Automatic annotation (TrEMBL), chain A:
It comes from the Eukaryota. GO terms for molecular function: proton-transporting ATPase activity, rotational mechanism. The keyword Ion transport applies. Pfam families: ATP-synt_F. Coiled coil: none annotated. Keywords: Hydrogen ion transport, Ion transport, Transport. SUPFAM superfamilies: AtpF-like (SSF159468). Subunit of the V1 complex of vacuolar(H+)-ATPase (V-ATPase), a multisubunit enzyme composed of a peripheral complex (V1) that hydrolyzes ATP and a membrane integral complex (V0) that translocates protons. V-ATPase is responsible for acidifying and maintaining the pH of intracellular compartments and in some cell types, is targeted to the plasma membrane, where it is responsible for acidifying the extracellular environment. One of its GO terms (cellular component) is proton-transporting V-type ATPase, V1 domain. This is V-type proton ATPase subunit F. InterPro entries: ATPase_V1-cplx_f_g_su, ATPase_V1-cplx_fsu_euk, ATPase_V1_fsu_sf. Gene3D superfamilies: ATPase, V1 complex, subunit F.
From TrEMBL, chain B:
It is found in: Cytoplasmic vesicle, COPI-coated vesicle; Endoplasmic reticulum-Golgi intermediate compartment; Endosome; Lysosome. This is Vacuolar ATPase assembly protein VMA22. It comes from Collichthys lucidus (Big head croaker). It holds the Pfam family Vma22_CCDC115. One of its GO terms (cellular component) is COPI-coated vesicle. Accessory component of the multisubunit proton-transporting vacuolar (V)-ATPase protein pump. Coiled coil: none annotated. PANTHER family: COILED-COIL DOMAIN-CONTAINING PROTEIN 115.
Length: 119, 222
């Protein structure tokens, strides 16, 4: 591993994970725990959520990339994450284009202009 | 006094709002670039799959030992923002690419030299003549592994030695995506930070406004 930097984790469909792993972000640590999760049709939401939460508590992960359609499944967990490290980035998937209105960060930013803020 | 304070806070608020808008605009631009790069990457993967076969580019091909070739440095700035910067293990990569090329050529026995299983009689008689001295000699064949198996290899090699150009293109696109995603992550924290600041300034302004109106109503009452 280069230096003391943090890892980039990815939760996504097969092609997304393959692409990012080709880019060189993949890691299997000493406990054989990967920093990626390939979500298939039979992957349960519980498994996705548990993996996401395990990535959040790992202190060697700096950024978590997640397909937006998967993020939708565990939206409550993503909305509950308020820390800046690890940063959660929603990315498009092959079948689901990126929708900015669903993005947690942008929705938070949009909240700026709600009536409540102007009160 | 109160009015000037109010004006000052309003100016500050405007400044922050403009910064917020700039950051959002830049975030949107980067997002668009990221999306198009990812799309390009998928397209290249699909092309590679088409030429290599459906099952040749899948999660099953991932290596059993995976080492990260890129890492991200997170630096918290004074204003609370976090700066993410990626670092690629380039030197190691190029070195190891050379080693990989070697190991590809060295397919075959890992031991050097020829192993003699049956010793000729001549050897035995010589041995007897030299006595114990020769018995202390190191064994003829010393198994030497030329190079340790290198876990930090190029992920392209998981999919074969001669991979199609499209898979290399996919790798290039995703490398760019990784760099861009670090920039976007930094920008996202900046946006959220500015939003917090903006909220705070707005509260301050409202407080100042209330003070002024209270003072004015007191004056009217007097």
């Amino acid at each position: 591993m280069a230096g003391r930097g943090k890892l980039i984790a990815v939760i996504g469909d097969e092609d997304t994970c393959t692409g990012f792993l080709l880019g060189g972000i993949g890691e299997l640590n000493k406990n054989r725990k990967p920093n990626f999760l390939v979500v298939e049709k039979d992957t349960s939401i519980t498994e996705i959520e548990e993996t996401f939460k395990s990535f959040l508590v790992r202190n060697d992960i700096g950024i978590i990339l997640i397909n937006q359609f998967i993020a939708e499944m565990i939206r409550h967990a993503i909305d509950a994450h308020m820390q800046s490290i690890p940063a959660v980035l929603e990315i498009p998937s092959k079948e689901h284009p990126y929708d900015a209105s669903k993005d947690s960060i942008l929705r938070r930013a949009k909240g700026m202009f709600s009536a409540e803020d102007f009160r | 006094m109160g009015v000037s304070e109010l004006e000052e806070s309003s100016l500050l608020l405007d400044e922050k709002l403009l910064r917020f808008m700039d950051q959002l605009e830049s975030l949107e631009e980067k997002r668009a670039t990221l999306n198009s790069l990812i799309e390009q990457g998928w397209f290249s993967i699909s092309k590679a799959r088409y030429s290599m076969g459906n099952k040749q580019v899948s999660a099953l091909q991932y290596a059993s030992e995976i080492e990260p070739l890129v890492c991200v440095h997170a630096r918290t700035l004074d204003n609370g923002e976090v700066d993410f910067s990626t670092e690629r293990a380039q030197q190691k990569c190029s070195k190891e690419a050379g080693l990989d090329a070697k190991s590809v050529e060295d397919i075959g026995p890992q031991e050097e030299g020829i192993r003699r299983r049956i010793r000729p009689k001549k050897d035995i008689t010589e041995k007897e003549a030299s006595g114990e001295a020769s018995s202390e000699k190191a064994p003829e064949v010393t198994p030497v592994r030329k190079c340790d198996q290198n876990p930090q290899q190029d992920p392209l090699k998981w999919f074969g030695i001669l991979v199609p150009q499209s898979l290399k293109q996919a790798q290039t696109s995703f490398k760019q995506v990784i760099e861009l995603s670090a920039e976007i992550a930094a920008l996202q924290t900046a946006v959220l930070n500015t939003r917090q600041e903006l909220k705070r300034s707005m509260k301050d302004k409202h407080a100042a406004q209330e003070n002024i109106s209270a003072a004015q109503s007191d004056k009217v009452a007097d």
